[in-house]
Design brief:
This protein is of the alpha/beta class and 256 residues long. Helix content is 39%, strand content 14%. It comes from Lederbergia ruris.
């Protein structure tokens, strides 16, 4: 029975309002239990860091995600490892053998020049949906706002489906201060000239998630969400947590 008036959420095969989870080694049986209940509120799953390469039964895990309608992809660190060792052709074959349709191009660990990332994107997008990431995993490396904006613009123009803003699974780099506080000036400037439906904000903590929900609404794209947090996140999006209680209330009153 639905009797509350709540903020409108995208549903089904969403193109925005995405919840992208991070899987850092969830056992397959546990994963199946989680997805059997919550797959309808999970859109994308990143097998974090380079963990996919050493994951037992990795192909089975990929199949489980796909069976539940969740798009799996491998963390950008594995792309960077392959780039560093000149193994991108082998990486492409590896992804195809696994049945993966999405790939991340990042430079969070290595300082890969933008033009080289664009070359990789041009090659990979022939066979995959490409997600690019902007920002460094080095908390001491400050990237000028103008560079953030330019990279996001260029990466989207190059054909990336989405661009991720770096935050790590710790929420302490990239768009965040070392203490986890959001660089709000950076976020507001970056979003001025960008289609926010194409940006995925890495937001691993409830505090960070609630910031973006309150700033950009219930259908903001959020990434690096822990698998066990997806239900609470959906409640937050729907104004069912104290901190987001009044989300969309003005629009709701207009409907009544």
């Amino acid at each position: 029975m639905n009797f509350l008036t709540l903020p409108e959420r995208t549903s089904g095969r969403r193109t925005y309002g995405l919840t992208s989870v991070i899987d850092l080694g969830t056992p397959i049986r546990e994963l199946e239990n989680i997805l059997s209940d919550y797959s309808h509120i999970i859109d994308i799953a990143k097998l974090g860091v380079g963990s996919a390469y050493v994951t037992p039964n990795i192909k089975k895990k990929i199949e489980v995600y796909k069976e539940y309608g969740v798009k799996p992809y491998l963390g950008g660190t594995l792309f960077e490892k392959c780039y560093y060792q000149n193994k991108i052709p082998e990486y492409r074959t590896y992804l195809q053998d696994l049945g993966i349709e999405w790939v991340e191009v990042s430079n969070g660990t290595l300082d890969i020049p933008l033009d080289e990332r664009l070359t990789a994107i041009s090659q990979l997008k022939r066979d995959f949906h490409v997600i690019a990431e902007v920002g460094s995993k080095d908390s001491d490396k400050e990237m000028p706002i103008s560079e953030w904006k330019e990279e996001i613009k260029v990466l989207l123009e190059a054909g990336c489906e989405y661009v991720i803003t770096e935050g790590r699974d710790s929420g302490s780099v990239g768009i965040y201060e070392k203490n986890g506080n959001i660089k709000s000036d950076l976020v507001h400037e970056v979003m001025k000239d960008v289609d926010e439906q194409k940006i995925i904000f890495e937001a691993p903590t409830p505090k960070q998630q609630m910031y973006f929900i309150k700033e950009m609404g219930p259908n903001v794209n959020l990434g690096n969400v822990k698998l066990n947090d997806v239900l609470v996140l959906e409640a937050q999006r729907c104004g069912l947590r104290s901190e987001t209680f009044y989300l969309g209330e003005r629009e709701c009153r207009l409907l009544l």
